Amino acid sequence: MSKIIAGLALLVSFHVTAIENEVHQQINQLFERLNLAYQELDVEAASATYSNDGLYISTGKELDLNIGNPGQVYFKEWFASLKQNQKYADINFRVKKREQLASDIVVDTGYYRIRVFDKQGHATASNYGKFLNINRLVNEQWINWADAFESNGENSEYWDAAKPIENLRYD
Question: Could you give the number of structural domains in the chain?
């Protein structure tokens, strides 16, 4: 999986342009929309953060490579399971690097943390990992066109070591 992520990063890192503050804010809002969808277990809201013709690469056995929107495949099943067990989740991000390749393409790399909570609000599980997102501007809204990630399980070493970087999402 690390080779896939590295290959995607090399593929898209051929031309970098300066990023305006407004673009930073809009991309950071994309992460916030996904986090809110996780907290509310809202399949439609989570799906709306992804492209319908994009690429979703997971280290999970059941969803190793998905072309299209992962919402109806991944989020629908997982969110339903959480609801059934009276749990909810959140997803947080610490972006390490952001590059704008074109006016409508921005690449983010960094770390994520997914936590599952019981109905009393106590964290019952955590998962940490690395990600590479290729974000596209479609109909004046940024969406995630390609999402590749690698789980580190409960190992929070990279997450803990990440430092805030100006203009980049840091939860």
Answer: 1
All residues at 6 or more sequence positions from 116 whose CB lies less than 8 Å from its CB, including other chains? 82, 87, 88, 89, 123, 124, 125, 126
Whether 31 maps to a domain, the answer reads yes
> Does residue 96 sit within a domain?
yes
Q: What is the pTM of this model?
A: 0.87
Q: What is the pLDDT of residues 108-154, one digit of tens each?
A: 999 999 999 999 999 999 999 999 999 999 999 999 999 999 999 99
Considering the domain boundaries, does residue 166 fall inside one? no
**Residue 168 counted as domain residue:** no
For the chain, what's the residue count? Answer: 171
List the CATH number of the domain containing 98: 3.10.450.50
Task: Evaluate the CA torsion angle 63, 69, 74, 77 in order and state its sign.
Answer: negative
Domain hosting 74: range is 2-161
